[in-house]
Each structure stands twice: as structure tokens, then as C-alpha cells.
Amino acid sequence: MSRAFTDSGSVARAYDNWTNDALLERLWGEHIHLGHYGSPPRQRDFRRAKADFVHALVRWSGLERLPKGSRLLDVGCGIGGSARILAADYGFEVLGISISPAQIARAQALTPEPLRQHCRFAVMDALALELDDQEFDAVWSVEACPHMADKQRYADELLRVLRPGGLLAVADWNRRDDTKVTMNRLERWVMRRLLDDWAHPEFASIEGLRGHLQGSRHGSRLEIDTADWTAATLPSWIDSILEGLRRPAAVLGLGPRGVKLGLREVPTILLMHWAFATGLMQFGVFKGQKPG
């Protein structure tokens, strides 16, 4: 079954299938984003590195300065791993949104009862947020932009719902800036695979996404700081494969189908590792405070 991007529905179907298959959760736990292995990177437990990523982005973006009770929107929340940390460890009132109904159902099921009043989830399209202007004190979005066909609209929606003085924290898989180094034939083939295998319409460059955020009509005079976390996150790709060896029951417990599902993802994961290791791709992080 093809997972090439056609429209927002193809993204929803891909994540519904990944969630219902249960393999990623069984292998990777509650976080489906990359992990943070420190600077310089060091060997870490794969799941611990994923939680560490959340704390690293909170500190880098300044979100830890916000008072408890601050309202935070998690755009592209997956099955809620980051949202639960942000609510439980930092005291934020979190709304996590995903275009995948299966992800939202699973996020709700994984959230313990005492946390549910502070950590809620809803099915929503990030390009058409059903939320009021300036509703949130912070907006958080990790590895969601690659699925957005309209990068400017994505940036506009993030900033539309952010109040003046509010904080933005974004992490993204970014392509190398084509205006600096054009892709060769091999790189073009790899890029096509990375787009089509996981329902991506296109990747933005770090410079390109920064331009979309700073150029948004909802962020006049907004300054965006960026950093490249490629080195700190790079071990995640190989670790995500090795988890199948460390936790064989997670795969074998699903029977022959689990093995087939796991093997299907390995070539794309290896291509992702190659692309990030060679500079074709970069892991960009973005932060800013909306002018008051």
C-alpha cells in the first residue's frame, strides 16, 4: 500500500495505520519523535533519550520560564507522550492535536485519569486550527511540518493562536538549502523515497521555515532563533532499528505480521540516517517570542 502524500487524508490514514498496527508503540514507547543524546552525543537508553528531547527543547526554547497553568498547544501530538510530560512535569494546561483519529484515541487512553483535566486531545487539521486567535501562552510542534503541504499556512496557524508575548517551540526535519548546494542524482532519488515512504509532501529548509515564521502576517517583528540538532538526534535512527533486537517480544508478539511491518520500515529508516549523516537533511529547532 502506497504512503505517498496526496492530501491531508493520506497523512491521517498513514498515522491511523501506524497507530492501529501498534508496532511503533510497542518498540518505541509513547514518543514517536527522535531522541536527544546530548552534546556531544553519548550512548543513552532509546526511550529515555526521547523523553530527554522534550526537556531539552523546553529548556532551549525558554518554556520552563512560563508559570504553571500556562496554556500550551501541541501541534502534531502523536499518541501524547510529549503532551503528558509538558503537563505533568511543567504544570502546563495542554491541548494536543493530531489529524489522526486513531492517534487521538490512543493518546486519550494512555493519559491517566488525574492528568486528564490538564492534558486534553482533539482531532484537528494543523492547517485549519479550530481555535481562537491568541488562545495559547505557548505553541509546541515537533516533526509535524514535513506533513504540511502549505508551509506558510502552517506557520500562520501556529502564530495565529499564540498570544502576544507567548513562546514558540518547533522542531523539524529539514532539507539542505537547495540555493547553496543542489542535489545530485543519488540525493534526488533518496529524497523522493523519504517523501513518498512516509506521506511527506515536501521538507522545508531551516532557512525556509524560519522565513515562513518570521514572514507570517500573525507575527509582525517576530525574531526566530534556530539551531541544528542533527548530531544530538542522529543516533535515534539506528537505535530505532536496534530496538527490534533489544525488545524482540514487541515484534514477535504481533506474529509474522509484526516482523513484516518492522522490515518494511527499515530501508526508509536507513535512508533517513544516511540523509542526516551526510547533510542532505538537518534537524532544525526554532524558537521565538511573539511581540507584545
Description:
With 292 residues, the protein is of the alpha/beta class. The chain has one domain (8-287): Rossmann fold (3-Layer(aba) Sandwich), CATH 3.40.50. Helices cover 45% and strands 17% of the residues. It has 12 helices and 7 strands. The protein has helices spanning 8-21, 23-28, 46-61, 81-90, 101-110, 151-160, 185-197, 206-214, 230-233, 235-246, 248-252, 256-278, and strands at residues 71-75, 93-98, 119-123, 136-142, 162-175, 225-228, 281-289. A 7-stranded mixed sheet has the order 3-2-1-4-5-7-6. Strand 2 (93-98), helix 5 (101-110) and strand 3 (119-123) form a beta-alpha-beta unit. The radius of gyration is 18 Å and the shape is globular. It starts with 7 loop residues before the first helix and ends with a strand. The relative contact order is 0.16. The model has no long low-confidence stretch (mean pLDDT 96).
**Poorly predicted ranges (pLDDT <50, ≥5 residues)?**
none
Radius of gyration: 18 Å
Shape: globular
- End-to-end gap: 48 Å
Main sheet overview: 7 strands, mixed
CATH architecture: 3-Layer(aba) Sandwich
Number of helices: 12
Overall structural class, as computed from helix and strand content, comes to alpha/beta
Largest beta sheet: strand ordering: 3-2-1-4-5-7-6
Estimated share of beta-strand residues: 15-25%
CATH superfamily, please?
Answer: Vaccinia Virus protein VP39
Extended strand count: 7
**Count of separate structural domains:** 1
Series of H and E elements: HHHEHEHEEHEHHEHHHHE
Mean pLDDT: 96
Determine the fraction of residues in helical runs and give it as a percent range. Answer: 40-55%
